[in-house]
Amino acid sequence: MTNGFGRATSEEPADTDIPLEDDEHPFEDAHLKPGLQLSGPSPTPATIQQQTLTSFHEEEAKREMEGGDEFIEINVTSPHKVGDGMSSYMAYKVTTNTNLTYFKKNKPEVNRRFSDFLGLRDKLTEKYLQNGRIIPPAPDKSVIGMTKVKMSKEDETSNQSEFVEKRRASLERYLNRTASHPNLRVDPDFREFLELDAELPKANQTAALSGKNVMKLISKVGDRVSQYTTKMEETDQWFEEKTVMIDNLDLQLRKLLVATESLVDYRKALSGHTYSLSKSLGMLGSAEDNSKLSAAIAQLAEVEEKVEKVHEQQAKDDFYLLSELVHDYIGIVGAVKDAFNERVKAWQSWQSVQRDLNKRRENKVKAELASKQDRVNQLRQEIAENERQLDMAQENFEKISRIIKKEFDAFDVKKCKDFKDTITKYLENMLKSQESLVTHWERFLPEIKQMEP
Fold it and tell me: Can you give the pTM of this predicted structure?
């Protein structure tokens, strides 16, 4: 059954005077707005305060803002459909609150469609992934979910609204994770995305991106030769250990995601069955002739209705707090793997240039033996260029290795903090739910005991 919550180097750009290297914590403060927040009111028990990955960090975010430190906080709100039928699309209001000096406005507001978010991620990936940066992933596409939204009417707000809310929250977390990276948040395309109050050009209409220099061409060589080059023999123990660790982490996260989704299904089903039980008890009470027994059954029906609301809230906590965190980190681990793969490409490019250099040196020796001076002079120039490219390729490989280590260390710290904070809040909410259940039953038990036959 469905649960209603279904999932649907080259130099870096020098367009800013903000330092782009030597960042110590590229994912610091992503927790300011990484979560989910229901746009509209929802029926929740009065004894339980609904918490999401967004709301339970709001106080910490406010403290940082009031403290005068640098901050950037992004909200994605007001999802609305533009147009009709299959040509329609969803647009979102993106509001940024920041004191960063390289933004032209302190609180810009713009409207963006889903494809704009994907285009932003593509641009950042094009610029920074080749240098070993970990680029936060954008939310997944969902053709089926979006088709249902496009064909739905204005008054159809059940599954479609849940899909839109899930996507809205995912987009918000994506932007805040990107904004928390000191290299990405100063990028001109990212700032334009947040500040330009106009429709953004589509990806295929966007001007050529910066950074297309000699090292990027060398990187392209790595792409071409990757299909037939031998597997890289890892000589760095750190990378060897982290590669094994990240593969295992990916596997365990995927298993955990299956478990959390099953838990959401179970809790949703439990809520539905408890609701059915409440209604059946109510009907039984109305059919009972004994007034005292009828009143007791009716009261039991009311308790079961309250219990159903608690189970419903538990299902939301299972999904919005736990399952979505796991889902997000599967994507982030994929981004870490992409960065590691860029290092492999850089090594392959380095080796490819080395092979070319060796061939030219061999040809030069043959040309010298054949007394072909013109050919010798030509090869001497080519060898000099090859040697320059070799130095650059080696430097690029070493630079990517250094950057990845720093990025990974920051990722690891942020991962631990995210899981600690989220699991703590999840357990607190579960305790509140159990306390609420105990309260409902404790109030009912003395009354049913006092009932006389």
Answer: 0.77
